[in-house]
# Entry
Amino acid sequence: MFGFGVPELAIIAAIVMMVFGVGKLPEIGNSFGKAISNFRKASEGKDMVELDSKKDI
# Structure
């Protein structure tokens, strides 16, 4: 997997948690998952792509 082992992934995860904070991680993971899903749909040639616009009230 790109030459990354468990120690390297743990260090990357710790850095990400320090930069974004623990509270932001679920939102970042959700956005990342939707981006991957949309990329797969677009690469398969499907016309509809999910866009999520956040409404600030």
In short: The chain has a mean pLDDT of 80. The chain has two helices and no strands.
